[in-house]
Specification:
Layout: E1 11-12, H1 14-22, E2 26-29, H2 33-38, E3 45-46, H3 52-55, E4 65-68, H4 73-84, E5 89-92, H5 95-101
Parallel strand pairs: 1-5, 2-3, 2-4, 4-5
Length: 121
């Protein structure tokens, strides 16, 4: 599904992420369940980072993927692994914080971006 040199970029900003999702890309949130429940992008699929290897077989290889976490570090790891496995994958640079900073909504409407816990991946 590559459309040019821009598709080689791993990190994309919130606008590019929203555009890719509007164009049919999957949005996968790799944060922990308590983080997801505190607030997430509407329409995203929640697959915690540690569950991604087991879930990979059910993720459509024919659709681009945008991974998101709180700040973009965990989702960057997921992006690199999925790219190396042949997926068209992107990292939402700056994570959910960047999504909100760009003026985009999360669910629930009173949702927040939860801080990570020391024992969370």
């Amino acid at each position: 599904m590559s459309t040019g040199a821009a598709d080689t970029e791993l990190d994309i900003d919130a606008t590019a992420a929203a555009d890719r999702v509007a164009g049919g890309a999957l949005l996968i949130d790799v944060r922990q369940t308590y983080e997801w429940e505190a607030g997430h992008v509407g329409g995203a699929e929640h697959i915690p980072l540690e569950e991604l290897p087991a879930a990979a077989a059910r993720i459509d290889r024919d659709r681009p993927i945008v991974f998101v976490c709180r700040t973009g570090s965990r989702s960057a790891l997921a992006t690199e692994v999925f790219r190396s496995s042949g997926y068209e994958a992107y990292n939402l640079a700056g994570g959910l914080l960047a999504w909100i900073d760009s003026g985009r909504a999360i669910e629930p409407t009173d949702g927040i971006v939860a801080d990570t816990r020391p024992d969370a991946s």
